[in-house]
């Protein structure tokens, strides 16, 4: 998700870092994805409007300002989103960075009101990214499902939370954050359990928020798995 003007300068460097950080390839299945589909997966995960960048942005705010909402809740959701995408990479034997290359490269805005406004714009950019990527992966229902779920979480949960926070001076109460970001758990989707590859949990995070990539298990079960992976 696009954050601040600095990203225009960082995007090229970060992309190169992401490729340099690629780990060993995963076990390959019989299905080999076309290059365009592989590129779509990489954009969703490692692009400047993708999930790695989003998590690093929220982690920067948590580092600068402490445990505040809605950043803490949405950062936990971003870890689930990253895991959902990494599982797709594993399914198709595609390499991905073992470490989030954006961590430590994004500075928190000068105040929380600016942060909320900037991150709201980032959610809008993320929704637009999936608008571009979904036609590319339309022949792959599992990828389409994950992309659609991630887009819905950005559009229907994260964006309203940041917009409301921006109107409220940059923060929300925990109750308001829960109300804004909660979506009903929907069936089985990739990536509920966090495996900790390249997406270390921020020490301020805890619990589970049911967004559109949550699996049918209860949030308490998911939170236990997240704790085990951290």
What key attributes describe this structure?
mainly alpha; 230 residues; disordered C terminus; 0% strand
Write the layout of secondary structure elements.
Layout: H1 6-20, H2 35-46, H3 51-65, H4 71-91, H5 112-133, H6 141-167, H7 174-181, H8 219-229
Your description of this structure?
The protein has 230 residues and is mainly α. The protein has one domain (6-229): Up-down Bundle (Ferritin). Helix content is 57%, strand content 0%. It has 8 helices and no strands. The chain has helices at residues 6-20, 35-46, 51-65, 71-91, 112-133, 141-167, 174-181, 219-229. α6 (141-167) packs antiparallel against α7 (174-181).
Could you give the order of the helices and strands?
HHHHHHHH
Ranges with pLDDT <50 over ≥5 residues? 1-21, 23-30, 185-230
Q: Averaged pLDDT, please?
A: 77
Radius of gyration: 16 Å
CATH architecture: Up-down Bundle
Main sheet: strands, sense, barrel: none
- Percent in strands: under 5%
Q: Strand pairing plus helix content: what structural class?
A: mainly alpha
CATH superfamily: Ferritin, core subunit, four-helix bundle
Overall, the morphology is globular
Total tally of structural domains: 1
Task: Measure the end-to-end span.
Answer: 24 Å
CATH class label: Mainly Alpha
Per DSSP, the total helix count is: 8
CATH topology: Ferritin
Tell me how many strands there are: 0
Helix content estimate: 55-70%
